[in-house]
Specification:
The protein has a single domain, classed as Glycosidases (TIM Barrel, Alpha-Beta Barrel). The chain has twelve helices and ten strands. The protein has helices at 21-31, 48-60, 108-121, 157-165, 170-178, 201-227, 249-253, 273-283, 289-299, 313-324, 348-358, 377-390, and strands at 4-12, 37-44, 64-70, 129-133, 187-190, 196-198, 231-236, 258-261, 332-336, 365-369. The longest helix is centred in the middle third of the chain and has 27 residues, at 201-227. The termini are close together. Bound molecules: zinc ion.
């Protein structure tokens, strides 16, 4: 296959210190000759000098430069944004971990303020495109409580108006949530690419309205970037997790130039497959063996796999394939190549088996995520070997 590589560089969040340009240049000088890199994604701490120098470096080498921009999360640290509301209309408070607090994606004032951040901080820099992250609602990993607060949002007045228009029955949704379940949310089937069936149709209806809200607002946001001539990439959840965060992957793939599902099999943090799977089971009250195995069987996930092992390779590859089969834009599999103690204990063997399996799924290439600056040399070397062999 002709496998392309996208590199991701994390240059700090909105409140952190930024990094020196020399660190970025040294890493790129070392990595670029070894991998077929077509795009570099970097963000998002505003630092004009750092971004401009990197843009000049990449332009000379004919590599597209994308701003990594978190949309419905983190932007709240720069502007006062309308919060998400829970099913009783109460404001969902952020957790101590501020990095993953979300605003209501259906609030038009929020969208305006978020684009205003881009305009003020980034519009003058020579980016070829924007890579839009956090284009979703919170996941099970972002929240807790008997009503799964994070996933069961948003119930602010603007969202309630949409539900009414869509004839969504909130009382039926509440009663579906309060019923005891033998698998998460009494799901009855998983058909791939994020498509679940649920015993209670109120759940399907709710998830589908949420996906529609994200899609409509992303379509507005994309129009803004298109008019300014930017290419667009999307960061999304793995298919089997996508409906719970409001992402219809097939529909979203029609808005962007490329799409990157985060297929992180070893990451013990939000978006990481083992982390999100455990949060889903825990927050829906289904983490005991009986319910866990019932859900595994429904997904087609091996019941022999323990929660402490890396996420099952065959299932991840199959789920990824279900997405590429219906995606209207090229898919770049997000693979964590950085090593971070406790959060991403990656090894060359992990990098090798994951690239080999994912390369068989119809993807265009890999997004080596989420920070090449934290990738150990042995991981980069292994990725270069395997991708060289594939091409
Ligand atoms: Zn809302």
């Amino acid at each position: 296959m002709d496998c392309e590589v996208t590199l991701q560089i994390f240059s700090g969040n909105f409140l952190e210190e930024t990094i020196p340009y020399e660190t970025v240049e040294q890493k790129l000088v070392s990595v670029l000759p070894r991998l077929p890199v077509r795009k570099v994604i970097m963000g998002w701490r505003p630092d004009k000098a750092l971004f401009e120098k990197t843009a000049a470096f990449l332009t000379k080498r004919n590599i597209d430069y994308y701003l990594w921009f978190p949309v419905f999360s983190e932007t709240g640290s720069l502007r006062e944004l309308g919060a998400l509301a829970d099913i009783h209309g109460r404001r969902i408070e952020c957790r101590a971990d501020e990095d993953f607090s979300f605003c209501c994606p259906n609030n038009s004032q929020n969208t305006k303020k978020i684009l205003d951040i881009f305009e003020q901080e980034f519009a003058s820099i020579g980016f070829n495109g924007v890579f839009l992250d956090r284009i979703r609602y919170p996941s099970f990993a972002n929240g807790h409580g008997p009503e799964f607060q994070s996933v069961f949002s948003c119930f602010c007045p603007e969202c309630m108006a949409v539900y009414e228009k869509e004839n969504l029955d909130i009382e039926q949704l509440k009663s579906a949530l309060s019923r005891p379940a033998s698998v998460p949310l009494s799901a009855t089937a998983y058909r791939g690419n994020g498509e679940y069936a649920f015993e209670d149709p109120a759940l399907s209806a709710f998830f589908s309205v949420k996906a529609k809200i994200i899609l409509e607002n992303m379509s507005r946001i994309c129009r803004y970037f298109r008019e300014k001539g930017y290419s667009i990439g999307f960061d999304v959840f793995a298919p089997f997790l996508s409906p719970f965060v409001g992402q219809d992957l097939k529909a979203l793939s029609g808005l962007c130039d490329f799409i990157k599902p985060m297929m992180y099999r070893i990451t013990n943090a939000p978006a990481g497959l083992p982390f999100e799977m455990e949060a889903l089971l825990r927050e829906t009250g289904c983490s005991d063996d009986l319910k866990r195995h019932a859900f595994y069987r429904l997904l087609g996930y091996p019941t022999t796999q323990g929660p402490d092992q890396p996420f099952d390779l065959d299932f991840a590859a199959k789920d990824l394939q279900s997405m590429t089969a219906s995606s209207t834009s090229p898919v770049y599999a997000g693979l964590e190549i950085n090593r971070i103690e406790k959060y991403a204990q990656t090894t060359p063997a992990y990098v090798e088996e994951t690239i080999e399996a994912y390369s068989q799924t119809g993807i265009r290439g890999f997004a080596l995520s989420w920070n090449i600056l934290d990738a150990p040399e042995e991981n980069i070397e292994k990725a270069a070997d395997v991708i060289g062999r594939l091409n």
